[in-house]
# Entry
Amino acid sequence: MIPLRDTVRSRNTPIVTFIIIAINIFVFAYQSMMPREIVAEMIFNYGFIPVRFIDNLFNPFAYIPLFTNIFIHGSLIHLLGNMWSLWIFGDNVEDRMGPIRFTLFYLLTGVIATTFHMLSDLSSYVPVIGASGAIAGVMGAYFLMFKNSRVLTIIPFFPFFFPIPAQIFLIIWFLTQVSSGISSGLAGSLSQNIAWWAHIFGFLGGVFLHKIFLRRNYTNRRSIF
# Structure
């Protein structure tokens, strides 16, 4: 199922969501213009590598990739899929949190996602990149914050649109991640192209932590905190 849009309209302009999408597009555009060896070096330096992090726990610079990895993508499809999901779910979550709280929430769930991916394979030398863990956190928050929302979806190869309750859509998505994570673990392929456990724990981070970041008074008036 491919989500097209949700039925909840935000009251305020999602400034941070726009900025995050713009940064990701800018970084990918920069990657696209650079030679392959420069891109490889960029991913090595700013992607998150579990073994490198563990070997440098007391080096402050080792923590930088925990944040920078969520702004780097490996392909156009990777970028578009993540940014589309952020666009659908991020504006409403930002609306309820406010720009500053939403920024902190997004970065925190991204770090949680990356950390749990690391714990799934401490010996991995494969760089982790992509915003999907942080976006999974946004989806986890949306799951509990907008219980009456629906997501208009389309099934590939079938020209039909289905309005599905958002909670059902997100449960299906989450169970798919869990199933894939378990399957990859049983197959002994934890160091793979898709960080399933980052998605799973990013989502759970959003579920359990989102209330901390909600604005005290949600009104029509714009607020940044």
In short: The domain at 2-213 is CATH 1.20.1540.10 (Rhomboid-like fold). The chain has nine helices and three strands. Strands lie at 2-6, 150-154, 161-165.
